[in-house]
Amino acid sequence: MERINVTKSFLPPKEEYQSYLTRIWDSSWLTNNGPLVVELEEKLKQYLNTPYFSFLGNGTIALQIALKALDLKGEIITTPFSYCATTTSIIWENLVPVFVDINKEDLNINANLIEAAITEKTSAIMATHVYGNPCDVEKIESIAKKHNLKIIYDAAHAFGVKYQGKSLLDYGDISTCSFHSTKVFHTVEGGSIICHNPELHEKIKLLRSFGHILDNYYVAGVNGKNSEFHAAMGLCNLNHLESIIQGRKDIFRIYDSLLDWNHLEKPTEKTDNLDYNFAYYPVVFESNIITDRVIQALNKENIFPRRYFYPSLNQLTYLTNYQSCPVSEDISSRVLSLPLYPDLDHSIVEKISAIINSNI
């Protein structure tokens, strides 16, 4: 059997991408906010119904620019259950991550624990919509207003998700997204920032482009731009987004129907006022021993799920001080993301489910 990875990048028909390559060759404009980047930004503004959208080189630089653009200092309250970029972006900006543990149900930051972590050094909350499932955005907003804090959402998993009738990326002072090749919507490498006022938007545009316009220098910026080739992939893939999400949903439902829920759990998905993107299929086993056994059994069949996320970020070896997050530490040792992509053969999904059921 062919190797089955946890994900597989969607590729549009070659001729669709080649039509954009012809435009690139005709213009010789490869980067520096070329016409395809501008076109993609405009289409994504329409899709997300937001006037302030910036296309960037990747999701990590988006987080770093978000932190810089808001002029944050001191401590950032954040989640221990996310990809390492959520934490390392804070460290790279010489800020201090303060971890707040997660809910057992949806694996998002536990909003009920946030206020206890706020100090006079706290300047913002950076939370992740884990697996594309919304954080408690209402409570987090209330806390932030009460304590005059900024909110950044790492929405790397949340493209295509709508909550309360609007894009999940529309919440917080800033939302960032990743368009890495493994995501529901991708530009091979890429990311974005969504904000809510024109002044902040202009600052973000400067920060992503070395901080200057022609010979006028305004801020100490970085190279956060993206290329015409990446924008071309995004323009192609945006046309297929509906079918991509539907294909993922179909596989989601097969897992739902076949897995033995007497011996494993799945993070709770919000059902009210939510249009989901089916970005990941995580399951949580009863112990890390069972998790290891399932991984080994699947690997023997050339199937490679992923511990996503592991380790709990408060346990990263390069952090200077340990902050206890028992729920995250426990879940991270028992969670596994199963293979999920639109053209995954349904018979393989059935096989994966059978192997799991026989090893738990």
UniProtKB/TrEMBL annotation:
- Active site, UniProt feature: K183 (proton acceptor)
Molecular function GO terms recorded: pyridoxal phosphate binding; transaminase activity
According to the UniProt record, list the residues that bear N6-(pyridoxal phosphate)lysine.
K183
The cross-references to SUPFAM superfamilies, in alphabetical order and at most eight, read: PLP-dependent transferases
Question: Can you tell which superkingdom this protein's organism belongs to?
Answer: Bacteria
State the Gene Ontology BP annotations.
Answer: polysaccharide biosynthetic process
Q: Which InterPro entries match?
A: DegT/StrS_aminotransferase, PyrdxlP-dep_Trfase, PyrdxlP-dep_Trfase_major
Q: Sorted alphabetically, which keywords does the UniProt record give?
A: Aminotransferase, Pyridoxal phosphate, Transferase
Say yes or no: keyword Transferase present. yes
Extract the coiled-coil ranges from the record.
none
As for family, the record states:
Belongs to the DegT/DnrJ/EryC1 family.
Protein name in UniProt: DegT/DnrJ/EryC1/StrS family aminotransferase
Species of origin reads Lacihabitans soyangensis
